[in-house]
Design brief:
43 residues, four-stranded antiparallel sheet, single chain
Length: 43
């Protein structure tokens, strides 16, 4: 699955594209927040 948009999807889920790291559409960073804790997942 390819996601061509980034940003805030709901109150606790963000998707950031890897363009700032020189890897557009090849690296995505997901930030999930729940109960004041944040988890960052890079794919």
């Amino acid at each position: 699955m390819i996601i061509n948009s980034e940003g805030k999807f709901n109150d606790n889920y963000y998707l950031i594209d890897g363009m700032p790291m020189g890897m557009p559409k090849f690296l995505s960073i997901y930030i999930i927040e729940n109960d004041g804790m944040r988890l960052m997942i890079d794919t």
